[in-house]
Amino acid sequence: MMNVQQTISNITNLIINESAKLGKPLTTQNFNVIHQAAGQKPLRLPDGKMAVYTFFYTADNLCLKVGQANLNSNARYQSHHYFRDSGTSTLTNSLIDDSGMTMINSTNWQGWVQANCERFDVLIDASFGKITLNFLEGLLQYYFQPKYEG
């Protein structure tokens, strides 16, 4: 199991430090990092917010996916990656298609991501725009090196 407070602190410091280096500093008043534990009902994207979300397989502390949800993308944030037929680039489909992830398959997928993955999500006001969202997603992808991208 990941150290929740340490991971939140690492993400926060990464964003603060790297955005400052670029001359466009973000502070803890501009964003917040939330944790969604394995087994919890996924949260709804708050009104007026965008998010960069991460999925970690709790058994291995392995980052599986980093993605983003824009202002009007609550389904992508809250439910898209938990289901098989909600799109082609879902976490569930990536896991089922990966022969190395033998613990999930086409018959036991339902509820697997929710039960076995935890999330660390960066929420930021939509007024910061798509470029800031892209920056945050790229930064976390580079930092965590997720197993699945696309």
Rounded mean pLDDT is: 93
- Count of domain modules: 1
Question: What is the number of helical segments per DSSP (H or I, 4+ residues)?
Answer: 5
Quaternary assembly: single chain
Rg, Cα atoms, Å: 15 Å
Shape: globular
Strand order of the largest sheet: 1-4-2-3
Number of strands: 4
Span from first to last CA?
26 Å
Class inferred from helices and paired strands: alpha+beta
Output the helix-strand order.
HEEEHHHEH
Helix content: 25-40%
Biggest sheet, open or closed, and with what strands and sense? 4 strands, antiparallel
Query: How much β-strand is present in the residues?
Result: 15-25%
Key descriptive features of the protein:
150 residues; alpha+beta; four-stranded antiparallel β-sheet; globular
